[in-house]
């Protein structure tokens, strides 16, 4: 078995268990963990134990949370891919599977040049590894369960579902989603610390209020089932995270974003239920929007504006997104997976300003000042 060390604080590791789920052979989590010399072990690894457990007993409500999260995100990936292929009505997702010698696997599903989607990625990543003492010490800032100073190393598990959809039609918005789970364990597989992270956000080139309201209301309804303070708290977090400082504007109209949700927020079952509700709300939040906008008429001016807005999307991902930056600076990283979230086409035009009293100007003004939609 290989040992893996975290090159940066866990916040960065957990935050972008993303599609960057493209990340290694399909997932960025693994791109961010660097293999060191193999360790000699006398018994089966936790990954091997879990694999045997799944073969013999399947995954039930009595299974460890890591196996339940893995099963859930793989089920969601299949459902989302089926519905997106139906919406596109032409292209099919290319499905790449991968596995890691140290434990873990993943599935990267990517569609390009479809009828509706210029580029779409829906990826799952599951990773096992070992955290050294230095990485554990950094994590203690956010997780009291790791306070024991005698711990020299811990096994870890990370799993996430991520997607990014870039439609052809400028009237149809780009959307991003990522839900993830991180867990540390001792050599026997007994859990030491755990947390959930994730969120979803909408990035329109042309703002339609009814789309923004629908997207946010659907997410809010999912959040409200678990905590009345969740939506306002995580919407504010999302608005702050996806802000582009050098442009003075947001990447899109937001949604929700959260990280490090552990026992200090709620119990594990309750948070898993919350993440499930949020993830399952994605299709109801986005499909009605793409159905309304995918066949709207547009011209070259609208397409040019979309390309400019996609340039902003690229700027955020390459300049400010922590996961992308970390992955691209990691030796041996799978660049194609890391950059899967980027659109096929984008545009930069010198000193461009939208005309006054146009849909373009209204959209840009809204991106400069976060708005309450639900």
From TrEMBL:
GO MF terms held by the record: coproporphyrinogen oxidase activity
Enzyme class per UniProt: oxidoreductase
Record region (Disordered): 23-43
Listed EC numbers: 1.3.3.3
Keywords: Heme biosynthesis, Oxidoreductase, Porphyrin biosynthesis
Pathway given in the UniProt record: Porphyrin-containing compound metabolism; protoporphyrin-IX biosynthesis; protoporphyrinogen-IX from coproporphyrinogen-III (O2 route): step 1/1
InterPro entries: Coprogen_oxidase_aer, Coprogen_oxidase_aer_sf, Coprogen_oxidase_CS
GO biological process, alphabetically ordered: protoporphyrinogen IX biosynthetic process
A Pfam family: Coprogen_oxidas
Domain of life: Eukaryota
GO cellular component terms, A-Z: cytoplasm
Protein family per UniProt: Belongs to the aerobic coproporphyrinogen-III oxidase family.
Known partners and oligomeric status: Homodimer.
Official protein name in the record: coproporphyrinogen oxidase
